[in-house]
Amino acid sequence: MAAAVWWPVRPSEVRGVVLVLHGGQVENTAPARPWHPAAVRMRGFVRPVARATAAGGAAVGLVRYRYRGWNGERADAARDVTTALDAVAAELGPVPVVLLGHSMGGRAALRAAGQPTVTGVLALAPWCPPQDPVEQLAGRTLVTVHGDRDRVTDPAHTRELAARARAVGASVAGIEVVAADHAMLHRSRDWHRAAAQLSAALLGLAEPAPEVAAALALRGDTAQGLRIALPHGTWSPQPVG
């Protein structure tokens, strides 16, 4: 089965796209299904992202993988995202695309970010092995959002990858969700609000929060300024220390 995009939101005139990428497993060649928990979890992001980007004519699509796992050097999820991006470009033309991915989907988004139509990546609790490349992120905007109580993917690895991405020319900001874990079930409304506002900002439809804009403006190979805290409540990120 080839990778596919399902469009829960697609206006008649599409001027931008947010592709939502769910998580998965390290190794698993069983078929991915839309009722698996990782896929269901990400459907909760569709409505808030659609509301935040509606004025800009953005479509919101869910990428369907062939397999449940990343599967080593095969990098199946990343290949599926690249195939989906090619299909979107062929169907809609060179509209800007933001990749919104969680966990394995975050890793796939980072790996596929070098595709010509991708302007930004929003990686939620991404899986960031230290050996993963970052050169494809040059010239892109990357925002990572990671819970400080995540025990599945390592927030420190996310910060390390973000610093390397900045060193090669990406604009980078990192948001730390206070008292949040990997599944994004605790404080889910905060995750949804953050993803919606950031998706709109990455498509150029809204101004990012001042702290995020300040982090994105930094350059160089330092991790200083990468971390912003998202405390409980409304979307109001704050500088960390």
From TrEMBL:
Listed Gene3D superfamilies: alpha/beta hydrolase
Domain of life: Bacteria
Pfam family, one: Abhydrolase_6
Domain AB hydrolase-1 residue range list: 18-206
Family matches, as SUPFAM superfamilies: alpha/beta-Hydrolases
Protein name (database record): AB hydrolase-1 domain-containing protein
UniProt organism field: Kitasatospora nipponensis
